[in-house]
Each structure stands twice: as C-alpha cells, then as structure tokens.
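Weekly structure sync, notes
Attendees: PL (lead), two postdocs, one rotation student
Agenda item 3: pending single-chain targets
PL asked that the sequence for the first pending target be pasted directly into the notes so everyone works from the same version. It is reproduced below exactly as submitted, 391 residues in total.
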Amino acid sequence: MGRLAPTPVYMQDRKNKTNLRFPEKAGTLLRAAFFLVFLFLFLAAAQNFLIPRTHDSLSETVYEDHGKGYDVLFAGNSLIMNAVYPMEMWHSSGIVGYNLGTGGQPLTMTSALLKDSIERFHPKLVVLDTTQLIVPVANQKPAFLHYLTDNMPFFSKTRFEMTADISGQMSYSLRETAGFFLPFYAYHDRWKELDKGSFTGDPKKHTSGAKIQSRVIENYKDVPDLTPDPDTELNPYPLSYLNEIIDTCGKTGTELLLISIPLCAPREENSYVTRINTAYAAERYAVENGIAYYNLIDRGNELGIDPAHDTTDGYHLNVWGAEKYTAALTGYLVEHYDLPDRRNDPDYSYLNAKYKRYLLRKYKDCLASEISDADREQLLMKAEADGVNLG
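Predicted structure, written out during the meeting:
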C-alpha cells in the first residue's frame, strides 16, 4: 500500500491556530454566560426591592403554601380583599383559605388567576365576589395589572398569557407593556423613592391576602330606599369572563360560590343603584344556571354591620365590618360545604404560629391609624383578650 502524503505545512499551521482559538472562544462564551446569569440574579434581587409593597397587590406569600394547598380561595377586587379575613376563618373553623383579591381586579384577570391557582393549589371551593360584573368594557388601569402580576412567579405561563391578553385589549404604551412583562423595567428608576418600608417585606405576609383597615367613613349618608330592578341584565363583556370561571371550576371539579358583600353607603348615587341591581341580576343568573349565591349586598344590618362606622368609604369594610362579615361567611361555608377542620392536623400546625403573627399585625396596623379614642380603647381591650403583647 502507498503511504499517505504528509499534511502541507501551511495547513498544519491553520489547524494548530484553530485548536488554540477554540479554548479561547469557549472561555469567552463561558465568561459571558456567567455574566448573564449574574446579571439576571442581580436584577431579580434588585427588582424584589424596587417593586412597590402595597396592600392592594397580590400577596406573594400565596405561593408559600408549604405544599399543602388551600381548601378555599377567595377571588375578586378590593371589596373581597377588605372583607374576608382567612386567618379569622382558620381560628374559628379550621378552614384553610387564601384571599386572592387585589385592587381593581377585573374579571378578565380573575379568570386567568383562578386557572393558575386552581392548578397549583387544588382548592375544594372558589368564592367569587361579583362586584366587577358592573364593568361594561375592557377598562384596566395599568396599576390594576401591576397589582396582580408583579408578585406572580416570573416564569409563570399564566402571567405572560394574561399580560399579553389584556395588553392586546388595551391601548397601553410600549413602555407600559414592557413594564408588565419585565417589572424591573417599570420600576428601575424607583430607587430614588426607596425607604425603610421598601425592605420590610410583604405588608400582607401574615394576613393570608386580606387588607386590614381601621379608618371609618367620613360624612356618612343614609342608604336610600331601593327596590332592585328585576329587568336589569348583565353586560355581555364581564359575563363572558364569569362564564370562563364557571367553566374552569366545572372542568376541575371545583365548587363555586358567588357572593355579594354588603354595600353600606353610596359614594356616588348612580354607582350605588347600579351595584345593587347588578348583584340581584347576578343572583338570578346564578339560580338559572344552578350556581350557589350568597347575596348580602343590602343586608348588612342582618350581620350587625353599622354603616356609619364599619366601612372606610361606604363600599369597603373596615376591620369592624370585615370581622362581622367573615364570621357570617364562615358560618355559611361550614353549613353548606364539606370543608375539613384542620386545626388539629399536624400538617397545618404552621398556621397556629401564623395566626399569632396575624393578630399582632392586625392590632398594630389598626392602632397606627387615625381612629377615635373609643375605637382605640376597644382595640386595646380586644388585643389584651387575645393575648397580644403590643409592647
């Protein structure tokens, strides 16, 4: 056999140079990858401090469920966020629940949030406030979307789909839309506003998503006599999203309860009438479709709610009104649903310690507000009875 011809010198040089450059390129790519990972982790950490910590936002602690899930999820806008205290429900009945309410949350967002939350937490029951059925068109302020998406898991498929859907319906600017997908972009300039409160964490960390207020309504006006209009019909736009929620619950075997929270005083006369009529229209729709409905929108007096004292503005219940409403809703759930009492379940023992932190937070927040001397004295007496050390 003939011998192979030797590789020409010029080709050997090229091959040697190529072999030398490969480790250099690999090292450069590795350094670039490490830099990008570091940059991502840095931005994620910085974003955690730059995102505003507000009582109107989704509490990120909903995802710290210890892998146990929730038996009940409460969904809706600021009315349910202010009215339902899951930790009070836990203490009195052993029901494990979480309040997903956020400021201005429309049914478009609620539907997407519930799809994600049902898949994550497998609740037995969803309790949905129907207030947002009064919103006739897609009219979402940018803040409403931030309240919900900023604290959702960054890589959540639902977060991206919901943001894309709502951005597509609204005329948000390119800057606003980018800020929804990348919260750091929306808040990158907020470092000038950082203060001590920016580093204290989620204000609803111990309340299981509830917003607690002790402010009392000013300039209370008597509730007008009103007979609901039996001809009021639900607007097709929000109704379509309610039907999405009904469908999601049906497919996942999750029970659904619709509610209307007591409305105690008018902020705007026309809005008050619209809310009452819409609640009763929703109740008729629920009955026609075999869905449970707990309608107390004009029956707050039956719960002992004082309209001149137990709300912050006539629409949102304060701590005194919310405790009364939560007690009534708890009784309704215990009577009508097969929900377990988990107070003696060792898997949920962490909630006992959380309840003590909740009480401390509740009383401190309420006492830090401008309230009457009589209300302050009542709160101090209740704190002492609950064994809370406010020192």
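Discussion points:
- The chain has one domain: 54-341.
- The domain at 54-341 is CATH 3.40.50.1110 (Rossmann fold).
Action: rotation student to compare against the earlier draft before next sync.
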